[in-house]
Amino acid sequence: MRGDADTAGEGGAGAEAVPWSTHRVVLLPDRVVKTYRPGHAAARAREVRALRLLAVHAPGIAPVLLEHGASRPGALTMSRLPGTPLRGRPLGAPELHAWAAALRTVHTALPPPELAAMPLRPGHQRAVTERLRRWYARPADRPRPPVVRRALDAGRAWLAGAPPGVTGDAPPSGVTPCFGPGDGNAANYLGDGHRVRLVDFEESGRSDRAWEIAEITEHVGGWVAEPVDVPALLRACALTPAETARLADCRRLLALVWLFLLAADDPARPRNPPGTAERQAHRLQVLLES
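^ that's the sequence the OP posted. Answer follows.
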């Protein structure tokens, strides 16, 4: 989970170099070359694993892995998918239903034995909870606006009373595991008017649908510019009652993470529009009170 709203998908034409925190992406007309920085071999391995598995079990939903390091250590070459990133533009009902269909496809792609053998994805609930507790334990780097402080205090109180099904190793009973892409940024979902495809699997692994969909609804890129119609997307996703009940707490936990990230933005070198942290504080308060 990155602390800003900037990123780029792999749709469109032309060639472009896009630097990211863990890797550098070069977009070519017919392929994408993604080179991981030193120290991120595990992320690269997760992406390779995901692309190989999806090519077998859900062909067409993700890029095709063309080459992975035989000639360029640390690099992955994959096909370039058609479509335009969903982030930052209005999405009507057909696009939201196509997005939900893509999520169902990828979440249910793996046979149960392969899914059971897969490690839990990075950044799942226990890791996120431990990160939040570390952040609460250390002093803030800079003064925070009152509305942000109040929301963080409310988040601390909620976190202290959250059940193990929200903060522990595993979700509550009745919640079915799924394959999780591990990235809620709408920029990594490409729509062509008929279907939606996915890119970026470096944080992928075993997960559950409520957690993965909460990653989408709470990602700052989904509301800081053109907001995603979250109720419509959730209706299209058709979650089970158990997943719906879990979703509310997943959203609260991830919204709290985003508030910490956005509150840490340096005013001298902002990565997000002014007032983004205050808006996130309000979003968190609404989720905590609902």
